[in-house]
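Hi, here's the filled form for the chain we discussed.

Project: internal
Contact: R.S.
Residues: 1224
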Amino acid sequence: FIDTEELQSLPRLGADDLPLSLLEMGCSGRFELITHPLPKNRPLPPHSTLPHGLPPTCLDLKTEVEKRFLRDPAWLPVHDVDDAFHKISGRDREVESLLHCSLSPLHSGLSVVRDPTTGLLLDFTEVLLEDTALSAKNSLSLQRQPGPPSESLRGSNTNYPFLPGSGFRYFSHNCSELEEDIDFEKDLLTVPPGLKAGVDFSDKGRVSLLLSMFFLTTCTPQDSGSSASNTVLLSEQKKKPQQEDKGDHKKWAVPVDITSPCDDFYKRIPDPAFKYPFELDVFQKQAILRLEAHDSVFVAAHTSAGKTVVAEYAIALSQKHMTRTIYTSPIKALSNQKFRDFKTTFGDVGLLTGDVQLSPESSCLIMTTEILRSMLYNGSEVIRDLEWVIFDEVHYINDAERGVVWEEVLIMLPEHVSIILLSATVPNAVEFSEWIGRIKKRPIYVISTVKRPVPLEHYLYTGNSTKTQKELFLLLESTGNFLTKGYYAAVEAKKERTSKHAQSFGTKNVSQHNTTASQDRAVWQTLLNYLSQRQQTPVVAFTFSRTRCDENARSLTSLDLTSSIEKSEIHSFLQKSLTRLRGGDRQLPQILSMRDLLKRGIGVHHSGILPILKEIIEMLFSRGLVKVLFATETFAMGVNMPARTVVFDSIRKHDGTGFRNLLPGEYIQMAGRAGRRGLDATGTVIILCKAGVHDMGELHAMMLGKPTVLQSQFRLTYTMILNLLRVEALRVTDMMRRSFSENHRDTQAHEKRISELRNTLSSLRPLDTEGQLSDILSYYHTITELRITTETLQRAVLESVNGLKALSVGRVVIVNNGQHHNALGVILQVSNDAVNRMFTTLIICEKGKEEAAGDDQSNKGEHTHTHTASHPPPNLTCPHIKSHHERPCSHTVRKLKSQDISAITTRTLKVIPERIIDNYNKRQQPRFRLDPPGQAISTATQELLRLAEANPNGITTLDPVNDLHLKGVDVVEGVMRHRVLQDCLKDFHCIHSPTFTEQVCLSFSCERMCVQEELDKLLFLVSDQSLTLLHEYHQRIKVLEALQYVDSTGAVQLKGRVACQISSHELLLTELLFENTLSPLAPEESAALLSCLVFTQNTQIDPHITSTLQEGINQVLNVAQRIGELQRDCGIAQTAEDFVAQFKFGLTEVVYCWARGMPFAEIAQLTDVQEGTIIRCIQRLDEVLKEVRQAARIVGDSVLGSKMERASLAIRRDIVFTASLYTH
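And the returned structure, exactly as it came back:
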């Protein structure tokens, strides 16, 4: 109870007594109301977040620099002798600091002295070590010191790579003796310095060498396997010198005969590194023998032949030798599968992919080819211990986008690394191996299988109902016979069910006709029931559309191919595999629908399927629980999961530009999945004829055509250029020269021929090039160019309509061929044959040469070039006509080809062709041979002689531009060049020399000029100027210089070093980095913006994004436009629009929401892109974020680096980054 009077005596509460307070939020002008009561005896919070007092002032820059760097004692020198200086600085000398310094490298080491007969250790001696200053920052040598442990695996972008074993020209001012380029065929000594005798490498010497090697191996503690390996090495040594004696024409690719059995295999390798529980095929034994000899091999074998045996033996051999092996694959899924298989077999196996790194210290590392390329460029220490690199699915080198990576890796591998290439059968395996062998200077043994271990039978299927379900027609037997009878039987069966209207159109182009969904369902239901009854499952149904894969699987609602036991096994495996997903992710629509399909034995496999779901389907298929698998072409690439039957939904596919039939190589790769070795006698391949039977010619070409040859996809990339430019000792042109695209050049043979030609040229009589004759060689080159220009113009004239019109009856022409040189003639007849048009011409010639002129008309073309090349006229526009008044002249009538006419004059004569030809033919008969020429011939020859005498400097010829009205750019430029060259001839001093004629005959002699021309041609071929991509290289260097990635001398600048860290779209990403485009964005916005670098599809749904993100997109497009225009200005063919169009922002909203924590089921509703594609893009985006983080650290932007790390952590969650079933 409170008294009212007491209450009234209390002071009334004012505004200041209420628990309210205003807080000023920074400088933005915003206020926040604080309403919560405060504890007693606690002051109110500050009413502003701004600091009290005056704002801080910015110090003058000069004052700040002086304070930090000039007056701070820590920056002053310790050993300055000026005491007054130290009194001012206030810094004391610390002598003991001199004792703490980094250790210098040791200049000597200990060497072991052993007894040469027993191998016992006798003593240690001190030896001097050379090149102790070599490191990864200044040398390519394997003798350099190892880098820090943190860089041992991936290397560093500041490291030099190890010297490639491809004959790169190694230029270095600090090059030591250990780093010199040694010729291992010519520079090796056989007699050691200080000794009188050495090793005899002749046939007699080999016997003693074998005995000594055997004695040493028995005295030295080694296991039996090593001695076996030595035996193989020595046996192979007998063959190698014989091959090397062949000289420069040596074939680097050595095909191995696998038709005869390898009976002495176990004698040659009594203790193999790996023992197999089955008998090896001949090709596998031959490959293993080559591996024991440490040779490189190319194994091109049919699908399911057992190429993996070769890879397994190499891994076992490297573990035995205590070295390392790298196994590369083209796709990440194949890397995961091989990791599981090899881990089970060998145990000591690691995996390196973009987002996974498992057991990197293992002796066998499995990785994608791009990672190996990065390790080679960055000088990874793994390369030191590397014995083998295994390239699986080498035919992937034909991939237009990624094929260049294989070529880069093959070129960059050091000399001590041996190569194993595994591929499907390719027609040019020898050619490809020849290229590798030549750039590596070592033989490559080519081992190919002759036939499949399980033969295939190819059928056409026309059934679509229970009545017609057995309409399966054999088209191609297992022996390779194409059965036209089966084809026509399929055509007849199909015609019985088609309407009369459809029958009238025949069977061609039926593949263009589309079928309805209900028709497709009927065909698949019928076929799969039929195959299930015949126990021909499992079936892989190749369908070249992800949408059609899903539709075909969903349409088979009534098809159930599994037993109750199999259903239970599928259910338990699904439950166990999906436990690693969060609860919400397990209920994704794709998982729920696939669960129902899998329980009925039906699976779907394409890039749109969730990765974990694809792995579940692959494992169930390999167990035989998935009976029917609808898959796209990617399932056939390297995934070793054969089936009993393969079905083709269609033989047409879309290749990115349009629809086309399957290539023979594509068909063979997919059809090869049929037939399980050890389980099936034959494999079955079925082609569906849903709308009609395909054209027989197309089927024959697809089934029996040659597989696609291995072709070079080498192209220049900015990353490649910058990685090579940052190492002064390596040149980009050397990389281009050694690419497969330049395989046609044989530099060694060319250089040998150049040496021979130079010797031949030096043996000829020397030219007088003194005094007035000093420019005679330039005169010759000008004359040669003038001749070539004239021939080019004349060819253009004769190919034109106006030029052919000018070559009419009565036209005076200049004739040059094997029989006539600058001879005048007049056209008498023109043939009507448009292809091989002939001109019957009356020609003035010397007396006695009429018969010679008619001999061997068929060889005119052969002599034309040689004659005109060796005796070019001084003036080719107005040719000097031979004057015949000094010697008796005659005439002849000949049929000329267009190339025999070197010039068309402006003059015409009135002639009577029939009389001239008849009179000439009459006088060719023996009894009329002495008759005088007829009046018509006499008149024509006199007119021609009068023209020659009246124009001693040459008769005026028709001008191609002014007279014949040819307006082509090449013709106009040719005429202008022709006039310039003509004017140049007057300025030469050599034409005034009294010995000019003699020297011209000497210099223009056929032998000298042929030798000189061949020499010039070969010098051009071995020079950089002949490289196909040299022009593009200079264009890209211009782009890099304009963007300041390199300076004018080619030295890589800071921006260039940043770009080296980025694997794709390096220019755009580096420019965004240096323009601070990512700085104002939040981590999730940065990730969303960078998704344009990894997403390549078109979408129909526009993303809803924030205004900040839209500004970022506009900036990216502006930078891309600027780079595209710069590339176009520098001459690169790609347009700015095409360059900008490759960046697509369809997943921007999806990535943004995912980084902000939205569940996967919800982000999948934001786009029409399939779930598997979304996951793959986010996984690749994580690799981009890591590259940007590394680049930010190089620049020194720690804020951006930490932001990229937060963005990476934000997207690395849940189903997107669930661990692979193969690795855990």
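Let me know if anything looks off before we file it.
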